[in-house]
Amino acid sequence: MKTDDNGMNIWSQAKNLAAQTPRERNRYVDFLRAVSILIVIVGHWLIATFYYVDGTLTTGLLLKTRPQTQWLTWVFQVMPIFFFVGGYSNAVSLESARRRGIEYAGWLAARLNRLLTPLLVLVVSWAVIGVVMHLFGVSPKVIQYASQASMIPTWFLAIYIMVVILAPATYSFWRSFGFVSFWVFAAIALLIDVAYFAAGLQWLGWANYFPVWLAVHHLGYAWRDGRIGSKARLLVYSGSGMLALILLIFTGPYPFAMVGSPDEGLSNTAPPKITVLALAVFQFGLLLALESPMRRVLSELRLWTATVLLSSMIMTVYLWHITIMVVFVALLYLAGGFGLGIEPGSLDWWLSRTLWISTLLVLLLPVALLLSPLERRSRSGDSKPISASWQIAGAMMACLGIALLARFGYGGGPLPFLDIGAFALVVVGAKISGVLSGFLNSSG
Q: Which of 70, 83, 385, 392 could form a disulfide with 216 if both were Cys (CB 3.0 to 4.6 A apart)?
């Protein structure tokens, strides 16, 4: 077991931190964040398919090759949970900063370091991996596929970082107008969807990343402020969200799958549609109706320790889980396709998924233990932050670079050297925002 500088193993360290948790802390927030990320990881490992026959490896998505499995996306699409949990956490953080007299620049620096530092490691690592693959004669198509697949987890960070930047303004909006502010974002999202489908303005659909996810983020504000009502009301919210989702999909133009784009040219998430918000309301109402019993369960030290441990490496685990899968599949391919000869979607394939997922978890663990200290270190920093305007400019550059790499990978894209430009945007953006300097100083 990996140990820290004091010779204390990581479980014991997490246990000590868990035992010191203030009574007023809402442990359910941390639990939902950790569980939602684990569900996303398992979902990605499950829907990605690899089939080796006669020396050829075919990659694909289970949702496309077996459309009847698309109902699984209603279970595995849990990103809304991460966003409304983020709304709760950002509200708590903003309130704490206000009490301690921390200005926006100082608050933002801590949040950006927490999010961008582990992401920067992934982006740089894949740039190095891509160069090494090229030097060993790997085809550009393979490099592009492997890097783009591994960058898929970064897409949501690009928008979430922007949501964090806007959090002081949106929280003020919420405090002034309450649920009216939520409905403003929901109405904008609906109007964009109408323009997308009725007017054929599909380019406008990409603007929905903001109103949809800001509305979901607002649900966390409502939770933090205790304005969610009774358990019965929460269940009404949940039922209303599910009813809206069913009506939108079965009587409207929206696809059935809630993850990816198995329906050619149409997706509920890329760009996001109002269906994501309906799903978020369903999940929000149902999960918060369970809050009281779950908070009692989380008072048990062992479960809370596991939550604390996972939370301490949550970004590292999330960002690297597809890279682990890509490397593992590459090794199996080089070993003559060992274990990849089972037809995806068959009974044998389903029976082998427990071993598949367990193996990937075992492989991910040492990577998480190795790299997660960077994530934890990024949360501490006593140096004076740079101006908020520079932080915002740098973060926006980094987000653009992240979005391009998540969409095209290294070696892909409609323009030559787009990957180099995207990489430069991430690194220069991290430098301008102060994240890169903080990372290098702490590493030194």
A: 83
CA distances from 372 to 177, 315, 364 (A): 39, 8, 12
Across 106-131, b (16+ Cβ under 10 Å) vs e yields ebbbbbbbbbbbbbbbbbeebbebbe
Joined tokens for residue 372: 């997660």
In a domain, 16, yes or no: no
This prediction's pTM:
0.91
Domains contained in the chain, number? 1
Q: What is the DSSP letter of 273?
A: -
Asked if residue 7 is part of any domain, the answer here is no
Query: Residue 53 belongs to what H/E stretch?
Result: strand 48-53
Residue 17 lies in a domain: no
Give residue 355's region: left, alpha or beta (phi > 0; psi -120 to 50).
Answer: alpha
In a domain, 385, yes or no: yes
Q: At CA 395, angle to CA 394 and CA 396, rounded to 5?
A: 90
- Per the structure, the complete domain to which residue 214 belongs is given by 22-443
Q: Distance between CA 170 and CA 306 in Å, rounded?
A: 32
Q: What is the pLDDT of residue 21?
A: 87
In this prediction, residue 375 has a pLDDT band, given cuts at 50, 70 and 90, of: confident
* Average pLDDT for the chain: 91
**pLDDT at residue 437 greater than cutoff 80:** no
Alpha-helical regions (H) of 22-72: 27-47, 62-65
Lowest mean pLDDT among 50-64, 267-281, 371-385: 371-385
